[in-house]
Amino acid sequence: MRKKKDHYRTLGVHFGATFDEIKNAYRKTAVQYHPDKNPGDKQSEEKFKALSEAYTILSNPDRRRIYDQAEGICSDLNYTTSNRTTNEHSPTDLNDIFNDILQPKKSKSQTNKYTSSYKSRHQKVNPTYNVKNVRTKGKRGSDINTELAIPFAQSILGVEKSIQLKRDETCKTCDGTGTSENSIQSICPRCMGKGETSQSQGKMRSAQFCNRCGGKGTLIHQPCGDCHGVGVVRKERTLRVKIPPLTDDGSLLRLANKGHTGENRGDPGNLFVKVLVEKHPVLERDGYDLKCRIPIGFATAALGGKIEVPTLTGHAKFEIPGGTQPNKTFRINNLGIKKSEDEKGDLAVTVEIRVPTKLSKKQQKLLKDYKKTEPEHEFSGKN
Ligand SMILES: [Zn+2]
Ligand SMILES: [Zn+2]
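Above: the input record for the complex with zinc ion. Below: its predicted structure, written as tokens.
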């Protein structure tokens, strides 16, 4: 978000300060930070520059008006260059001030022609006025946090998913202004149009968001009927979310500016999607390799044969040799995870050999016949 310069705060004057108040504030602080008095002091130089900029703007009625409007500070919209008397409040040459600062004894007569103040002009203005095209400072929308569960294979291959959420969006009826045809807007009496209230404790000044007007500086009477003056309405939305390949469980995806729209046309927040990866029934990831444990019958292990192995997209056949021992791991090339256009990891299949717990009569007979052929004392050894 743009960091605004608060020229009023820089000079330590309130909004609505008279020209003399602004000038006096500038004189007081500029003396303190003037480069002639603080040679080589970078901080003073910066402060002096900021003071001069603030003074240049606030001492010039035209520039002050433009600045006020841009910052959403109460401004006199009927007041245009065409109907004001020019030169009456001509911009003050900074050199005049410097002369004053550096030669404090100089006659004050020169300042008198500037005493007709901004504030007095403002007081002539009806504080209630129609609000077309008023620019107010928007509050940034808040972030949305959501979760999305995806199957294991999709977390590796990548996928595009839809998510549904409720989101604050700019009210189309009023285009986010919160106003209606009949709206009347008035200056917020609490913050006097600044959108924030300041408190001073000794030398410390702290600013707080004005909660009467929500930081807008103005109050809306007869607001937009759809958003009740807030400028945003809650909508149900379906958004497409692209999940890139190789997304780990718990990854947080950030979708910039897809969160809630801010009030008063503030910047939208972000959408954060936490990806939860569901476990695969058998496959697990190991870098670019996949691994799994597959049960096979003991006859297949002994005789060898084709078995089915799981892959990311389905199944594949794999031939195991005769005499395969329990917990033997086979590495199958190119059934793992894509590393590059022409390179893939392996699928590591560890076989578990199942011994049947129930045998049919026929199986029992076959195994008994087989048993007769087995060597009697396999472990007799030397003892
Ligand atoms: Zn306020
Ligand atoms: Zn509206």
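Notes for the reader.
The chain has a mean pLDDT of 79.
The first strand starts at residue 128 and ends at 129.
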